[in-house]
From TrEMBL:
Domain FAD-dependent oxidoreductase 2 FAD-binding: 16-470
A GO biological-process term: steroid metabolic process
Signal peptide: none
Protein's name in the database: FAD-dependent oxidoreductase
Annotated organism of origin: Zwartia hollandica
SUPFAM superfamilies: FAD/NAD(P)-binding domain, Succinate dehydrogenase/fumarate reductase flavoprotein, catalytic domain
Keywords of the record: FAD, Flavoprotein, Oxidoreductase
Keyword Flavoprotein: yes
Keyword hit for Chaperone: no
Cofactor: FAD
Molecular-function annotations in GO: oxidoreductase activity
Length: 492
């Protein structure tokens, strides 16, 4: 990296803290910092109106644990053999108990999810400490995010949209991070950070090169979350010698439709939602055979095998194959704006009879299964054999192959249809390693001075993941990062 003399830099703007990324972690960091008396400039890659990262399009829950001891026990159990340092477990478990108190202090209204829904691993020790909350009297999409965004706007926090950070500025003598280079509408600008820079810009779920390099089991994977999360924080931290951790962990895969027209994936109702359409449906891999329970319920991409949890297999290409009865039964896509970038931000209206998508080529069709196999370049006779075996399972009343119990109906008459499915995920968990002070560290454990992180960029979750944990972690480590950075003496 080019060495820069800080005395020769022309600064275009100055603040105590520069926060890179306006999502849940960025909001928590900025709010905590200004309430401690610091000035903050927040940079976001997205245009105004599309900020918020994955926090905006998640299901809006956040974790608040009941005891530090229980939270630590549960996190250690989630990690299993993929352990994290116990000082990190300790500070995480202590801060996660304070999320409701903090949210209330900034104008939030914490409400617990009813019936403890979604405690993903209730059999693990410490699970009784897990409590999922949201802001307000309903669990509505983006409601928690809207409260956070309003809390930011109500405070003296400067937000610059369409202004991604491209490089960190480091003093070559002290190794301190003293600012960032950002790009605003094609112009490079230098922003001074008198006390520190906090990276809160999410993961690399929309960077196919990083996905190929770091994620196992998927040749490619597309996000259902923010398309602006392209691994910028990973790259910038690595340029300064940061260590990485948890790079192979991600909230996925699921199976979804990805088309060039839209940057994020479409969840297929027949796979993920409660509606039970008529007709036969299976998902096949490149050999034309089934490979899983199509109505699976993963735990953020993990499925159980022989008492252990592993990532869902996704042999590509994959196809959801179905008959005319299912085609006639209504839209195969669930567009309710409850989660996901496509549903909440893009707002695509799927046709009621699926014919518009058939016309776009998103759905393929052929008069027979043999012809459909040829169209999809699947082995000759494979779809006929798979459908025959499926119909025999339905007649016998049990799926001996994968134990599927939902949408347990036979294939009927053609024509037949197929949708190509891709591996999909909401977010990655990996990134630069942080310590208990939210400082980004080198491989030897020493911190890179004045550089911090919070949120999904270098998350504490090393393998198994508890839903709402990421937003809870955004709040917790956003507060820690802000406190650590504000405590620094300004370098100028």
């Amino acid at each position: 990296m080019k060495q820069i003399n800080p005395q020769n830099i022309t600064w275009d703007a100055t603040a105590d803290l520069v926060v890179v990324g306006f999502g849940g972690a960025g909001a928590a960091t900025a709010i905590t910092a200004v309430e401690a008396g610091a000035s903050v400039i927040m940079l976001d890659k997205a245009p105004e109106g599309q900020e918020g990262g994955n926090t905006r399009v998640a299901a809006q829950g956040y974790l608040n644990t009941s005891t530090p001891e229980g939270a630590a026990t549960y996190l250690n159990a989630l990690c299993g053999p993929y352990t994290v340092p116990q000082d990190m477990v300790k500070v995480w478990s202590e801060e996660m108990c304070k999320n409701n108190e903090w949210l209330t202090s900034i104008g939030g209204d914490p409400q617990e999810h009813q019936h403890k829904v979604g405690i993903e691993f209730p059999d693990l020790p410490g699970a009784d400490s897990v409590h999922k909350f949201h802001h307000g009297d309903i669990l509505g999409y983006s409601k928690t995010w809207e409260m956070l965004a309003e809390a930011v706007r109500a405070r003296p926090i400067e937000v610059r949209y369409e202004c991604p950070a491209t490089r960190l500025i480091q003093d070559p003598l002290t190794q301190e991070v003293i600012g960032v280079v950002a790009n605003h509408k094609g112009k490079s600008i230098n922003i001074k950070a008198r006390k520190g820079v906090v990276l809160t810009c999410g993961g690399f779920e929309n960077n196919q090169e990083m996905i190929r390099n770091y994620l196992t089991g998927v040749p490619y994977c597309y996000t259902s979350g923010s398309p602006f999360n392209e691994g910028d924080g990973v790259r910038m931290a690595m340029e300064l010698g940061a260590d990485l951790w948890h790079m192979n962990n991600f909230a996925g895969p699921s199976m979804a439709l990805k088309v060039p027209d839209y940057p994020t994936t479409f969840s297929m109702m027949a796979l993920h939602f409660s509606h039970e359409p008529a007709g036969g449906m299976v998902v096949v891999g490149p050999d034309g055979k089934r490979f899983t329970d199509e109505k699976y319920k993963t735990r953020h991409g993990k499925v159980e095998h022989h008492g252990k949890w592993y990532a869902l297999r996704t042999p590509c290409p994959m196809y959801m194959v179905f008959d005319q009865a299912m085609m006639n039964d209504g839209p195969i896509y669930d567009g309710k704006p409850t989660h996901g970038w496509t549903q909440i931000m893009s707002g695509y209206t799927w046709s009621k009879d699926n014919k518009a998508e058939l016309g776009k080529g998103w759905i393929k069709t052929a008069p027979t299964l043999e012809a459909l196999a040829k169209l999809l370049d699947l082995p000759e006779g494979s779809l006929d054999q798979t459908a025959t075996r499926w119909n025999a399972s339905v007649a016998a009343g049990t799926d001996a192959d994968f134990g599927r119990t939902k949408m347990f109906q036979p294939f009927g008459a053609g024509p037949f249809y197929a949708v190509e499915l891709s591996p999909s995920m909401l977010n990655t968990q990996g990134g630069p390693r942080r310590n208990a002070r939210a400082e980004i560290v080198r491989p030897d454990g020493t911190p890179i001075p004045r550089l911090y992180s919070a949120g999904e960029l270098g998350s504490i979750f090393s393998y198994l993941y508890q839903g709402t944990g990421n937003i809870g972690e955004c709040f917790a480590f956003g507060r820690i990062a802000a406190r650590s950075a504000v405590a620094q003496k300004a370098w100028s």
